TrEMBL record:
Residues 435-444 have a biased composition (Acidic residues). Residues 65-246 form the Multidrug resistance protein MdtA-like barrel-sandwich hybrid domain. This is Macrolide export protein MacA. Keywords: Signal. Residues 1-25 form the signal peptide. Residues 256-323 form the CusB-like beta-barrel domain. GO terms for molecular function: efflux transmembrane transporter activity. The keyword Protein transport does not apply. Residues 407-429 have a biased composition (Basic and acidic residues). Belongs to the membrane fusion protein (MFP) (TC 8.A.1) family.
Length: 451
C-alpha cells in the first residue's frame, strides 16, 4: 500500500516533464508560418544601376606658366614698378636699370654707321641694298680713268702701225690701260667692303638699341607677381632674377593614377576636383598624359586644365580628383542604410516569400550613401532598405521599390577605386595599400526620404 503513492508521484512527474517539452517545441515548428511577428518595412528590389568607374587621386593646382624673369643686361636698378601679388599685363615694366651708358653706346653706333654710309655716297634714308656698286663715286672715278686708258691704248696702236710712235711710248700706253683696269676692279672691291661694313655698323647699332631697351625689364606674359627679388639702388648682373611671375588662368591640376589604370586614362576624360576652400566641386578635363610611368612609384602622371577666369583659385591648393574612366559601367548598388555591420562582417535583411532573414554580403566601392555589392546578392533580390528594422519576421509594407531614387547625385556617379596618390604622383604608400572607404563628403539624402 505504501508503494502505490510513490508510483503515482513518479507518473505525475513524468507527465509534467514531457508536457512542458511539447508545449515549448510547438512554437519552433510553427514559427516560420504562424507565430512570427510582422514588421512594416520598405523593401528594395535589386537591379543593375549606372555606376561609372571613377579613379580617385590627390594633387595640387599649379600655374599654367611660371617663370623667373632675369635681367638681360647688368647695371644699377633705377626703379622697381611691382609688388608681390600685383597683376601685370604682358609687356608691362617690372624694373628699370640705369640707361645712361646704353644711350651713349647707341649714339656711338649711329655715328659709326653714318661714317660707313658716307664712304659709298649713301643718302639719308637710302638703303645699302638699293645701291648699285657701279654707281658709287669711287667706282665711277676709276671707270673714267680706265676708259681713258683704253682710248689711249687704241691711239697708240694706230700710231705704232704707221711708225709714228716709238715702242717705249706704246708700252707706256698699254701699261697705263692695265693699271686703270686694276684700279677699277679695286674700287669695286672697296665698295663691296664698305657695304659689308655698313651691315656691321647697322648690327652694332641694333645691339646698342636692344641693350638700351633691355634696361627696362618687362613681363613676358600677363600674370601675377609671386616674388620680387630686387630694390632700387641695387646692382644686378646679367641673368640675375628680378621677379617670379605666374599665369593662373587657366590652372593645371597635376595628379597620378596607379599602373593598373594607366591604359584606361585618356585625353578629354572628365575630372571632378574637390577643394576644401571651395564650396562646390570644380570640373576639368584631362589635357596632358605623361608618355611613361614613374619607375619608383609605378604611377602615371597626368594634368587637367582648370578654368580660372575670375582668378579665385590659387596655385598650390590641394585637391582631390575623381577621374571618370568608364562612364558606362553598371553594378548592383545598395543604400548604406540597408547594410548592417558588426564585428567586421556585413549583412542585409533579405526578403524571400515575404519573410526576412539575414544574408551575409561583401561590398567593394563606396560613395556617400551607397555601396557596390561584390557578392552575396543577385539581381531581383529583395532587401530591407532600413537594416535597423531587420528581424526574423514577416515583412509587410506599403511599397516595394524597383530602383533607387534619383537625386542630385545619383549613385551611378561614383564607382570609386579610392586609389589616393599624393603630392603630384608621389604616393606615401604603395597604390595597393591605399584602399579606403572614407568619403570626404556626404551629399546624398537618405534613400527612404524620397519614397
Amino acid at each position: 500500500m505504501q508503494r502505490l503513492p510513490s508510483f503515482l508521484c513518479l507518473c505525475v512527474a513524468l507527465w509534467v516533464l514531457f508536457g512542458c517539452r511539447e508545449r515549448n517545441a510547438a512554437p519552433e515548428s510553427l514559427g516560420d508560418t504562424q507565430d512570427l511577428p510582422e514588421i512594416a518595412a520598405e523593401t528594395l528590389r535589386l537591379e543593375m544601376q549606372s555606376w561609372p568607374t571613377v579613379v580617385r587621386c590627390q594633387g595640387n593646382l599649379l600655374p599654367d606658366e611660371q617663370v623667373v624673369v632675369g635681367a638681360k643686361v647688368g647695371g644699377r636698378v633705377d626703379a622697381v614698378h611691382i609688388e608681390i601679388g600685383d597683376f601685370v599685363e604682358q609687356g608691362a615694366p617690372l624694373a628699370t636699370l640705369d640707361q645712361q651708358e646704353a644711350r651713349l653706346r647707341v649714339l656711338q653706333a649711329q655715328a659709326q654707321l653714318r661714317q660707313a654710309r658716307s664712304t659709298v655716297g649713301l643718302l639719308e634714308g637710302q638703303s645699302a641694298d638699293d645701291l648699285n656698286p657701279e654707281n658709287a663715286a669711287p667706282v665711277r672715278e676709276a671707270k673714267a680713268v680706265w676708259d681713258e686708258g683704253i682710248a689711249g691704248f687704241k691711239r697708240a696702236q694706230m700710231l705704232i702701225e704707221r711708225n709714228a710712235l716709238s715702242a717705249a711710248e706704246f708700252d707706256q700706253a698699254a701699261a697705263a690701260e692695265q693699271v686703270a683696269q686694276a684700279q677699277y676692279a679695286s674700287s669695286l672691291n672697296a665698295v663691296a667692303e664698305s657695304l659689308a661694313l655698313i651691315g656691321v655698323r647697322q648690327a652694332e647699332l641694333s645691339i646698342a638699341q636692344q641693350q638700351l631697351a633691355d634696361a627696362v625689364v618687362t613681363a613676358p606674359f600677363s600674370g601675377y607677381v609671386q616674388q620680387r627679388g630686387i630694390a632700387p639702388g641695387a646692382y644686378v648682373a646679367t641673368g640675375q632674377p628680378i621677379a617670379v611671375l605666374v599665369r593662373t588662368s587657366p590652372l593645371r591640376f597635376r595628379g597620378a593614377v596607379p599602373e593598373r589604370f594607366a591604359q584606361s586614362l585618356k585625353l578629354g576624360q572628365e575630372v571632378r576636383l574637390t577643394i576644401q576652400s571651395v564650396p562646390t566641386p570644380v570640373t576639368a578635363a584631362v589635357t596632358r598624359i605623361s608618355p611613361m610611368l614613374d619607375s619608383r612609384s609605378r604611377t602615371l602622371m597626368f594634368e587637367a586644365e582648370v578654368a580660372n577666369k575670375d582668378h579665385q583659385l590659387r596655385t598650390g591648393l590641394f585637391a582631390e580628383a575623381e577621374i571618370v574612366i568608364d562612364p558606362a559601367a553598371r553594378a548592383i548598388v545598395l543604400p548604406e542604410s540597408a547594410i548592417v555591420e558588426f564585428g567586421g562582417t556585413q549583412k542585409v535583411w533579405k526578403v524571400v516569400d515575404g519573410m526576412a532573414s539575414e544574408q551575409p554580403i561583401a561590398t567593394s566601392h563606396r560613395r556617400p550613401g551607397y555601396r557596390e555589392v561584390a557578392e552575396g546578392l543577385e539581381i531581383g533580390d529583395l532587401v530591407l532598405i532600413d537594416g535597423d528594422q531587420g528581424a526574423v519576421a514577416k515583412v509587410t509594407g506599403p511599397t516595394v521599390r524597383s530602383s533607387l531614387s534619383t537625386s542630385r547625385d545619383e549613385p551611378g556617379d561614383v564607382k570609386d577605386t579610392k586609389d589616393a596618390v599624393l603630392n603630384d604622383g608621389k604616393p606615401t604608400e604603395s597604390p595597393e595599400s591605399m584602399e579606403s572607404t572614407e568619403d570626404p563628403t556626404d551629399e546624398d539624402s537618405n534613400v527612404r526620404a524620397s519614397s
